[in-house]
């Protein structure tokens, strides 16, 4: 890996036995995330060389869901197309073009051939470009272009934090793509190598966790998804479409469109607190209102938002998303002088009351939140990382956190569970408790450590005052990051950390991944507890007093559209070192 968006492969060969033991040709391949690969042959021979170059290409154009499950489709036959080859299937076409054009293209074998002349000490290159037919190449933002993400830095007692934040921001920069029709708007690809497109829920989650780097990414992502919003008549009016996502062996697949629709108004509300300009907020407000209208219309008289594609199943994390959207959405509507806030708060209050009664499963250890409720009202009692979403309450005005679905006693019990070896693997938060039936350390929703949910747990636990549990999870992720060269995959095995052990990579994980890279921003800035209210001209600091990484400072963050720097001492005291003119420190 040369960078998050580039990999380099080098091979050597001898063209004749008379050359001796040393190779006289170096074959260098540079592969870029935008679908380009450059193959260069460098000659160290003392005589001219004429070399045949042959590239074999093939694809099955398989569905991404099948690929994630490790299934391959039948290899498709190719046809000659311009200066390359094309493949076709029922779901679309793809082509590979070459520069210079090949001397010969054998479609039946998927081969492109060249005869390259290399002078002594000279080089020749071939460039391949792959893209879906009928579409332009992926429009990467690029390193030279103006990025919506600030190049923040960390420094302090723990060198891992600095390296991890630097690499994660590089990953986010590399995953930035421009909208094909509106190039001023950018979003994050979900991850490489097999989720290189827009995943609405993941893009919103990543943009929200990356708010300390500025509001530009959030604004672009919101504008892009607002253009996809369903606005016609019917029960889906107001939804942000999204594909279904496998939820593991214990629950049916879920609709990521539901999650995206609930994330949209929450992200807009929090982006405004971080400094999204009022005119941009006003432009996006109608789409957020439609999301909130869909929420209330879909819930109706029910205090719960049921999964519309799971036969009436009520998921724990869906209620957390809906409750947060209602409260942050109400706050946003009030601030912008729009009606509807009271109705959203009333629904959120009814949801809190019902959730604390219906979703809490009593046991000898003090109880736990159910992961879901069946259509007949029976709780599904498995302990999973979905419970971390119950601690993710969202940011209101004046640096206040929105109330959560759990009461104080329930929150304390949940914190103890998340901090116990049942859930804390030593490398981060497991997706499912080790004592639950169906636990699998490699289960992507049944035991693997997911960096995104670990970060949400750390932030939520710290905000609720459970610093010991938050610090343990944080240190576990940083320990794992060292083994992944500070480029965290979206998930890795949830095996228990022991002396001398290492975290095991997950075979289907993307690396780099948008949610993992953005989660690092949330993980580390949680130590400073930055709670801005840009419209009010204030920022409040709630640092982690135990200072689990010792002294740590952040430079180059952005609050209210200006650089923001903060330092947390070894005593857990925070001090602002740079801020926008007129920004006041809140109580």
Give a brief rundown of this model.
This protein is an alpha+beta fold.
- How many distinct folded domains? 2
- Write down how many β-strands occur, each being a DSSP E stretch of 2 or more residues: 28
How helix-rich are the residues, as a percent range? 25-40%
Structural class: alpha+beta
* Poorly predicted regions: none
What CATH architecture label of the largest domain applies? Alpha/alpha barrel
* CATH fold field value of the largest domain: Glycosyltransferase
The proportion of strand residues reads 15-25%
- Tell me, rounded to a whole number, the average pLDDT: 92
Shape: globular
Task: Please give the count of helices.
Answer: 12
Largest sheet: 7 strands, antiparallel
What's the N-to-C terminus distance?
Answer: 45 Å
For the record, what CATH class of the largest domain applies?
Mainly Alpha
Give the neighbour order of strands across the main sheet: 1-2-3-10-7-6-5
Rg for CA atoms: 26 Å
**Quaternary structure state of the chains depicted:** single chain
What does this structure look like?
The protein is an alpha+beta fold and 587 residues long. Helices cover 30% and strands 22% of the residues. The protein has 12 helices and 28 strands. The strands form 9 sheets. It has a 7-stranded antiparallel sheet, with no helix packed on it. A 4-stranded antiparallel sheet has the order 11-25-26-27. Strands 4-9-8 form a 3-stranded antiparallel sheet, with no helix packed on it. A hairpin with a 2-residue loop joins strand 25 (552-559) and strand 26.
């Amino acid at each position: 890996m040369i960078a998050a968006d580039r990999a380099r492969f080098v091979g050597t060969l001898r063209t004749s036995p008379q050359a001796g033991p040393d190779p006289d040709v170096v074959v260098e391949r540079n592969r870029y995330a935008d679908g380009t690969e450059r193959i260069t042959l460098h000659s160290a021979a003392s005589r001219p060389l004429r070399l045949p170059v042959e590239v074999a290409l093939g694809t099955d154009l398989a569905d991404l869901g099948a690929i994630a499950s490790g299934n391959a489709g039948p290899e498709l036959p190719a046809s000659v197309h311009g200066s390359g080859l094309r493949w076709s299937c029922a779901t679309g076409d793809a082509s590979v073009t070459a520069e210079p054009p090949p001397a010969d293209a054998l479609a039946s074998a998927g081969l492109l051939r060249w005869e390259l002349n290399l002078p002594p000490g000279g080089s020749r290159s071939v460039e391949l470009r792959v893209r879906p037919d009928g579409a332009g190449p992926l429009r990467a933002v690029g390193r030279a272009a103006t990025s919506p993400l600030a190049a923040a830095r960390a420094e302090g007692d723990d060198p891992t934090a600095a390296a991890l934040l630097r690499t994660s921001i590089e990953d986010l920069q590399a995953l930035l793509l421009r909208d094909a029709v509106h190039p001023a708007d950018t979003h994050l690809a979900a991850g490489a190598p097999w989720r290189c497109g827009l995943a609405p829920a993941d893009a919103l989650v990543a943009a929200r966790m990356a708010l300390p780097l500025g509001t530009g990414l959030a604004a672009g992502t919101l504008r892009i998804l607002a253009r996809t919003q369903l606005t016609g008549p019917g029960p889906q009016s107001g939804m942000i479409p999204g594909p279904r996502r496998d939820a593991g062996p214990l629950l049916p697949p879920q609709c990521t469109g539901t999650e995206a629709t609930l994330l949209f108004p929450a992200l807009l509300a929090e982006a405004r607190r971080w400094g999204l300009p009022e005119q941009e907020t006003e432009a996006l407000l109608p789409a957020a209102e439609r999301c909130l209208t869909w929420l209330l219309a879909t819930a109706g008289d029910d205090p719960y938002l049921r999964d519309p594609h799971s036969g009436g199943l009520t998921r724990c994390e869906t209620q957390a998303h809906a409750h947060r959207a209602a409260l942050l959405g109400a706050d946003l509507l009030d601030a912008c002088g729009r009606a509807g806030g009271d109705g959203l708060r009333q629904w959120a209050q009814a949801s809190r009351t019902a959730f604390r009664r219906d979703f809490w499963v009593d046991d000898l250890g003090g109880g736990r939140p159910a992961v879901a409720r069946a259509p007949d009202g029976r709780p599904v009692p498995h302990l999973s990382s979905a419970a971390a979403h119950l601690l993710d309450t969202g940011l209101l005005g004046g640096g206040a956190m929105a109330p959560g679905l759990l009461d104080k006693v329930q929150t304390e019990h949940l914190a103890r569970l998340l901090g116990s070896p049942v859930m804390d693997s030593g490398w981060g938060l497991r997706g499912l408790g080790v004592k639950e039936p169906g636990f699998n350390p490699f289960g992507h929703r049944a035991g693997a450590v997911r960096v995104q949910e670990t970060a949400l747990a750390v932030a939520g636990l710290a905000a609720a005052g459970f610093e010991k549990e938050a610090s343990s999870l944080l240190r576990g992720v940083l320990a794992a990051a060292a083994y992944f060269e500070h480029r965290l995959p979206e998930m890795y095995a949830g095996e228990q950390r022991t002396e001398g052990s290492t975290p095991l990579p997950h075979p289907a994980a993307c690396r780099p991944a948008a949610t993992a890279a953005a989660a690092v921003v949330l993980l580390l800035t949680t130590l400073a507890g930055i709670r801005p209210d840009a419209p009010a001209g204030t920022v409040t600091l709630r640092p982690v007093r135990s200072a689990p990484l010792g002294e740590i400072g952040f430079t180059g963050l952005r609050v209210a559209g200006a650089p923001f720097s903060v330092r947390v001492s070894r005593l857990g005291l925070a001090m602002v070192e740079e801020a926008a003119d007129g920004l006041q420190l809140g109580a």
